[in-house]
Amino acid sequence: LELSRQYRFFLPGDYDVGTTLTLDSERSSYLCRVLRLREGTSLEIFPGDGSAFGCRLVDANPRRAQLHVAHQETSAKSSGPSLHLAIALLKGSAMDRALQQATELGASHLHLIRAQRSNVPLTSDRLDSKLLHWERIIASACEQSGRRSVPKLQAPGTLAEVWAAMAPCPLLIAFEPEGETLPMTLSPEPCGIFIGPEGGWSEDERAWLSEKSVNQYQLGNTILRAETMPAVALALIQHAQGWRSPSA
Questions:
Q1: Count of Cβ atoms closer than 10 Å to residue 168 Cβ
Q2: Confidence (pTM)
Q3: Phi, psi angles (nearest 5°) of residue 163
Q4: Phi and psi (nearest 5°) for 55?
Q5: Residue 184, Cβ density class (10 Å: 0-12 exposed, 13-18 middle, ≥19 buried)
Q6: Which of 60, 102, 191, 230 has the fewest CB atoms within 10 Å of its CB?
Q7: CA angle 131, 133, 135 (to 5 degrees)
Q8: Helix 203-211 vs helix 159-166: angle between axes, to the nearest 10 degrees?
Q9: Is 76 exposed, middle or buried (0-12, 13-18, 19+ CB in 10 A)?
Q10: Can you state the percent helix, strand and coil of the chain, rounding each to 5?
Q11: Are strands 152-153 and 83-88 parallel, antiparallel or unpaired?
């Protein structure tokens, strides 16, 4: 079975070769009405753990499409240590873009920080909706970029809570205008990166990060928007550590 790499879809769950999967109405409509796929079309599905399966569309029903799982693709294991990205909450589409680009550039874990200057109030009901929305953004970025491993998204927490979750990483980094110059090379070990909100870290947060031995680096005289910084930071760390592919 030859796969069309144009059609790759994140489909969570457990499935085995030889089984037939029935898709929900949303996914069925997308495949059959939006993409206008026909029976016999080959595609790839992945559950988000690094594995992938070659399938064929056997019933192009726009309400209950069915896929036959033909074979399992060869797994692509991670070629390097994990990359944890902690980013302060941003408003609207800026948060979407930050998470999308972080996924494309290899973040293995995504942590959200309720920073003092985030100014993004989220009620419990709205938070659930936003988390679901962000998870879809992340899954879509995996589909587009060819990743088979979906980064783990953590619910928003305080800076201290997020630091505690990332503390096992031997290398912790924050980018600050007053920081030192980022080294050209870094040891290839699990890394945690802290990105502040649009208004930057507060003085208390800067002092707290210093007390926790978080390395602070700067980008010369360049000042970037908070939504741009995650992609730049990840690219710099990836380059300094020799680039890794998180279960492509």
A1: 10
A2: 0.85
A3: -60, -40
A4: -130, 165
A5: exposed
A6: 60
A7: 70
A8: 20
A9: middle
A10: 30, 25, 45
A11: unpaired
Structure tokens given for 215:
């390395």
Type of residue found at 220: G
pLDDT per residue, tens digit, the chain (248 aa), is: 444 447 889 999 888 899 999 999 999 999 999 989 999 999 999 998 888 999 999 999 999 999 999 999 876 555 567 899 999 999 889 999 999 999 999 999 999 999 998 878 777 778 889 999 999 999 999 998 888 899 999 999 999 999 999 988 999 999 887 888 888 898 889 999 999 998 888 999 999 999 998 999 887 777 788 899 999 999 999 999 887 655 44
Rounded-to-integer distance, Cα 70 and Cα 16, Å: 9
What are the distances in angstroms from CA 1 to CA 15, 36, 51, 99, 124? Answer: 18, 20, 17, 34, 46
Q: For residue 79, what are its two tokens?
A: 């070629």
Alpha carbon 214 to its chain centroid, in Å, reads 22
Which residues have a Cβ under 8 Å from the Cβ of 182 and sit 6 or more positions away? 217, 218, 219, 236, 240
Residue in this structure with the two tokens 């309400």, named with its chain if needed: 63
Residues 100 and 28: their CA atoms lie apart, in Å, by 24
Amino acid at 132: L
Q: Report the chain's terminal Cα–Cα distance, integer Å.
A: 21
